[in-house]
Amino acid sequence: MSGHTGDAGPVEVEPMPGYLDLITRASTVMLGAWRDCSPCGLELSKRTLLDNANITLTEITLFFFCAFLWTQVRRGLTESLFQPLAQWCRLLPKDAAKMPESAWKLVFYTMSWSYSTYLLFFTSYSFFHDPPSVFYNWKSGMSVPTDIAIAYLIQGSFYGHSIYATVYMDAWRKDSAVMVVHHIITLALISFSYAFRYHNVGILVLFLHDINDIQLEFTKLNIYLKTRGEGYHLLNDVLSNMGSVSFSITWFWFRLYWFPLKVLYATCVSSLQSVPNIPFYFFFNTLLLALLLMNIYWFLFIVVFVVKVLKVKEVNDVREYEDEEGNNAAAGLLKEPQAENHDDDDAGHHNSAQGKHVQNGINKKKHL
Hints:
The structure is a single chain. This protein has one domain. The protein has a two-stranded antiparallel sheet with strand order 1-2. Helix 5 (146-168) crosses helix 7. The chain has helices at residues 19-36, 42-52, 57-88, 93-121, 146-168, 176-195, 199-225, 234-274, 281-312, 321-367, and strands spanning 2-4, 10-12. The chain has 368 residues and is mostly helical. A hairpin with a 5-residue loop joins strand 1 (2-4) and strand 2 (10-12). 27% of the residues are buried.
């Protein structure tokens, strides 16, 4: 396979590195870049920002308009479609409250990931097969292709909406605070990568992350549907188990294998080879590393999820286990005193009976 570097002609695609190669080469390159960056500081960052950031007032206005539009579309679909569908399916109350959120996210992520897949595999872009090509012919202020600009507008405005939605519209879970941080970092990556024209690598990052959201929401919907109408539905149970398995596998494969070895290697190592003085090198790589750390954090939830499934043989949202266990524990504490009181009453009746039996024996002896 070969890639293209504009006027330089075709070059052989560099093979994807391993974890050890990534760690050694990335650390070496980054330490060297840090030592060579003697003028680095606030003043240089400010000058670099002014010289290289390219974003217009029209684009900012479109971002806020589309973020507002996503919120209104979600509300409209929730009221006119998702909530009536939950009532028609006769979902349990706790599932009916969460079903619209999952349905909305499934619709969006299916659309966005399909578009990213189209860009990476059905157009002339070779970013997936040749990650270093994301920096070929990079120039400050270069124009963004319309198809990629559309993807950025869709994704950026959605994450702007998601920050609001996580706090005010979604069911609050034990990782919701981390989710807000994730949305902020993702929005920062999208906004700055667009402004500094790192849009090619941005499309690759979005493709590698959105697929897991599709599988997650698909699995959750089938969890809700398998107990609809106060019954048990085998098909939805099988689908939820299949979704959970594929979700666990692709999470590791896309976010913990391809993401560091394709994206981080390209941004940490290949970027300086193509553009020696690439702006905000450390800033973007710090954000990408933070994203990787959050992916590892959530992978711990997936491990807990697998353990729970193996133990209870049932698929549920692992982010809610602690709450459910806490409620069960609280219910148990309420029942235990009652049980103790019941045992005390039984013991009292037993002692009373023994007392009457002893007294009758005494009376009999008196008669004798």
